[in-house]
Design goal:
single chain, mainly beta, Tumour Suppressor Smad4, five-stranded mixed β-sheet, SMAD_FHA_dom_sf, TRAF-interacting protein with FHA domain-containing protein A
Amino acid sequence: MTSFEEAETEETVTCLHLTFYHPGQEEKRMFRCLDFCRREQVRADDTAKFGRDSSVCRYSLLDTRVSRIQFSLHFYRRLHTSEHGFEIKNLSKRTKLTVNQTELGYLNKIDLPWKCIICFGDYQILAEIQEGEAMDYFETHLHLAETPILQEKCLPSLQPIPENGISPSFFLSQGKSPTEMDENDL
């Protein structure tokens, strides 16, 4: 057998892609401490912190309006599955954090959806999870957006769209409730 045949099977690595945007990023250069050129490995037991304090935060934002520690991302494995996920926690006492319009106050945390927009102040961050198998570490890959993310990206709708294409809010605005009918009644 060759060494190629005897080599261990490569495992894929979970990668968290984060695309940053701020309207003043050209003149204020608040992202100059972030490395947008390469993927970075993060140990699974480390918490990835984002904020102003470079001695505590792995990802430092150079802006006095950003909290010392703004938020953290924690990598974990879901119970009774082989799937991995991320939990986001707001660590700012002054600034609320929103994840796809879900508002998080200080110390509130939720699971990070596979694709979402994280907002605080004027910051917009598109987070996209690329699933992998490795359990000892994950990777981050940072990107910089030139245009606002909220206008650029279309996230999956949180509202189900009915087959007939008529939104339930249409019925509510007319004082009626939707009624179920058999397709043969049409």
